[in-house]
Amino acid sequence: MNRILCIILCFWIHSANAQRFIEIKLDKDSLQNEYTIHTLRFYLSKFRVHVFDDAWYDEENSYHLIDLDDPDSWKIQLSKKISKSSIDSISFLIGIDSLTNVAGILEGDLDPIKGMYWAWNSGYINFKVEGEKRSIKANFEYHLGGYLPPFATVRQVKLARNPKNRKLIIHLNLKQFLDQIEMGELKEVMIPGPEAVALSDKLSNCFSLE
Amino acid sequence: MLASFNEGWLDDSQHAQIADWPEPIYNFEQNPVTEEGFQLGRKLFYDPQLSRDNTISCANCHLQFTGFTHVDHAVSHGIEGRKGTRNSPVLINLAWNSSFHWDGGVNHLDVQAINPIQHFAEMDNSLENVLHYVNDLREYKSAFFNVFGDSTASSQSLMRAISQFTTSLVSSNSKYDQFIRGETTFSKQEKKGLKLFKKHCNSCHTAPLFNSNDYASNGLPIDSVYNDLGRYGITKVGSDSLKFRIPTLRNIEHTYPYMHDGRFKKLREVVQYYAEELDRSNSYLSEKLKADMKLSGNDQKDLIAFLCTLTDRTFLYNPRFGFPH
Question: What is the pLDDT of residues B9-24, one digit of tens each?
């Protein structure tokens, strides 16, 4: 009884004028005719919310595995409420930073059991997409990862907020990403190296903020 | 020196033996070793139920009496007799290694064991299955509760339990160690061998651990079966081609066959290789091996006599590290 009351109360306080979630949205419509997606899983991490006056606030322990098959994962709860009107921009990493890659065995979304981990070349798979391109009837599998220079694949993205928009919604334009790949020539990337780097560069331009 | 951060890790006599060694690299603060944790890790290490068909335990490829390697097999054999592509390395003084596997592809001991559990040619299982198995057994549940405060094992507690056992595999009481501590003397031949070792080998196989946390080519031609390029497979950097991790030579007398693909069966052959067969015009050969060693037949014997002083019977036959009864 107490707990329910408390939740309602919190909601009321927070919803007044505060930002509580970041939503991630896949631009699905554009995909439909061209690509079938079987698997889409990726890490977004180290969220930083920049407020006006050059200040910012960092999410603690901010490692999020986003999974196409798990709708809950597309909504990231912020631990601190921030007044919406003061948010200037947000930044985050696509993938996992190098320190975390060498930190040993981790829990939660970073548990190797989640299938986003290479054991033989230890480190996280930052981004995984598997599917089919209809027009050329080609299956593709891209597992992007690797933290060792010169083939580090984690990418930082910073997106400015349009003050007119009330919500924080990050769009991933997967079609834009897949369209940039010569699928006839490159059907899969399964290891760290120059291909993973090239695709990670392309990917980092496909996120935008509504 | 070491007792300050971890009481449970080693017993007093071992602390005394490694007093002059560098600090371990393994982070014991994150995973403090306790007696119960060590015993849990030991149980897991010797448990064949960790493999898909319940036939292969870690100890199948890592046998205590041979420094925890797989003797007689050039490359390791796993379930259903499937062959791997590399010789299983020794498990000795792992807490001082900064990376693991012949190519250094594994960057932390706590994530190493995911490899054999999942590898098709090793145990061919999944982490999920192994966790289901241990979480279904009363004896494991109570052990995990005692060590990690949670009777349900997670990937993290499972891997850390195994590390509590494998980091405890410390070999520090060979004849060489006793000689350095002034507890025994070397024969004339062993002394000559030590001198030759310092001159030709110690720059890579560096005392007191007799390894380096680094990669080098000792000039071996690429193997014709697996075309193993070593470190290059991990970094994709051209200059890493044919480099391998510089392994420890502790207990080397008993850890045959030698090299990443087990191409040499006898220590004599290895020393002969370095002395006579090594092609010093190899472009990828380490600078440290470019000069001719000019080792006579007798020199080679002396060197082998020294290498045999690295045998540590108190380690190879310590009942604490054996099959748990």
Answer: 788 888 889 999 999 9
**CA B146, CA B161: separation in Å to the nearest integer?**
11
Cβ atoms of residues B165 and B117 within 8 Å? no
Q: Which of B105, B131, B160 lies nearest to residue A120, judging by beta carbons?
A: B105
B295 to chain A, minimum CA–CA distance in Å? 38
Domains of chain B: 4-171 (1.10.760.10), 175-313 (1.10.760.10)
Query: What one-character DSSP code corresponds to residue B243?
Result: B
Shortest CA distance to B85 belongs to which of B259, B230, B228? B228
Q: Which residues pair with A67 in a beta bridge?
A: A41
> Do A122 and B107 make contact, defined as CB atoms within 8 angstroms?
yes
- Tell me the C-alpha distance between B97 and B24, whole Å: 8
> Contact, A19 vs A84, CB < 8 A?
yes
What residues in A contact B234, CB-CB < 8 Å?
121, 148, 192
Query: What are the pLDDT tens digits along chain A (210 aa)?
Result: 344 433 333 333 344 456 678 888 888 777 878 999 999 999 999 999 888 877 888 888 889 999 999 999 999 888 777 777 788 899 999 999 999 999 999 999 999 999 999 999 999 999 999 999 998 889 999 999 999 999 999 999 999 988 787 778 999 999 999 999 999 899 999 999 999 999 999 999 999 998
Q: What is the pTM of this model?
A: 0.93
The answer to whether the CB atoms of A105 and B235 lie below 8 A apart is no
How far is the C-alpha of B124 from the C-alpha of B51, rounded, in Å?
6
C-alpha B124/C-alpha B79 separation (Å) is: 7
CB nearest A102 (choices: B30, B107, B155): B107
Chain B: give the shortest CA distance to residue A91, in Å: 28
